């Protein structure tokens, strides 16, 4: 079934990876209406702080707070509460923190959701896409990356989380085992012909949509483009054609 441009826009997440508030605000003004969700990660959050997230929410934008929480369950519950208080649409934790920690994140998210807001989606980061089989061996983590991703996604689902962050490589098998509404959010998206940069396991927007991704995270191919709005429109067109 074909996806409309509007449906594609709701599923496009743009990473605001910058330390400059002026630059972040300029990108938001330029991309307003063509991007469903703005992602604030560690770089932007540690430089611009919660007030930038509040500003985005006040602008009526949906925010993915990509802080990858990983700590003892009580601390993660309190941090999840604080994430939800900001009115974000989604945030994430590391599955490696364990089932109890993930369940605590869910509890914190529900308790912190302001009246009139939906409880944010809480996503689990499974195996970082920067870790290959060699790095897993170095960490003494048994099994392949795929086996670990599947197992940790099961743990996340059991803990009541909304979905996982995964690479395009894992989409196909995860989609089979975890049908919607379990959310699959995929970074490392590179439109055909764009620079890969430091990403390893990349996929085009069309491929990621076909493999079952619910949300696509795109950073530099849009934010560093000479015309970021036109670059976002091109990604939407590719997503819409994919179905
Ligand atoms: O610029 P680029 O499209 O590579 O940006 C991807 C974004 O997704 C970055 O903010 C990066 O931190 C994030 N991310 C990722 N891989 C993960 C999790 C998050 O690239 N496994």
Characterization of the model:
The chain has helices spanning 5-10, 21-31, 42-58, 73-85, 99-112, 133-138, 145-158, 168-177, 205-210, 220-223, 228-242, and strands at residues 12-15, 37-41, 62-69, 90-94, 121-125, 163-165, 183-186, 215-218. The protein has 243 residues and is α/β, with parallel strands linked by helices. It has one domain (5-241): Alpha-Beta Barrel (TIM Barrel), CATH 3.20.20.70. Helix 5 (99-112) links the parallel strand 4 (90-94) and strand 5 (121-125). Helix 4 packs parallel to helix 5 (99-112). The relative contact order is 0.15. Bound molecules: cytidine-5'-monophosphate. Cytidine-5'-monophosphate (C5P) binds at residues 15, 17, 41, 128-129, 165, 187-188, 197, 199, 217-220.
Which secondary structure elements does this structure contain, and how are they paired or packed?
Blueprint: H1 5-10, E1 12-15, H2 21-31, E2 37-41, H3 42-58, E3 62-69, H4 73-85, E4 90-94, H5 99-112, E5 121-125, H6 133-138, H7 145-158, E6 163-165, H8 168-177, E7 183-186, H9 205-210, E8 215-218, H10 220-223, H11 228-242
Parallel strand pairs: 1-2, 1-8, 2-3, 3-4, 4-5, 5-6, 6-7, 7-8
Helix pairs in contact: 4-5, 7-8
């Amino acid at each position: 079934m074909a996806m409309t441009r509007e449906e594609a826009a709701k599923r496009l997440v743009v990473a605001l990876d910058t330390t400059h508030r002026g630059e972040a605000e300029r990108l938001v003004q330029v991309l307003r209406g063509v991007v469903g969700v703005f992602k604030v990660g560690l770089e932007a959050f540690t430089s611009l702080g919660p007030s930038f997230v509040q500003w985005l929410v006040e602008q009526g934008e949906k925010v993915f707070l990509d802080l990858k929480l990983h700590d003892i369950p009580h601390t993660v519950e309190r941090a999840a509460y604080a994430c939800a208080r900001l009115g974000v649409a989604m945030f994430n934790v590391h599955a490696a923190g364990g089932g109890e920690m993930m369940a605590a994140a869910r509890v914190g998210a529900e308790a912190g959701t302001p009246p009139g807001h939906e409880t944010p989606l809480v996503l689990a980061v499974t195996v970082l896409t920067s870790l290959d089989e060699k790095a897993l061996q170095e960490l003494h983590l048994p099994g392949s990356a795929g086996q670990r991703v599947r197992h940790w996604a099961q743990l996340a689902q059991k803990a009541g989380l909304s979905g996982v962050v995964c690479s395009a490589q894992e989409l196909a098998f995860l989609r089979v085992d975890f049908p919607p509404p379990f959310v699959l959010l995929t970074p490392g998206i590179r439109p055909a012909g764009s620079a890969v940069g430091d990403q390893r396991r990349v996929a085009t927007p069309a491929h990621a949509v076909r493999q079952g991704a619910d949300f696509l995270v795109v950073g530099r191919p849009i934010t560093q483009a000479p015309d970021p709005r036109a670059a976002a429109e091109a990604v939407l067109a590719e997503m819409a054609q994919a179905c």
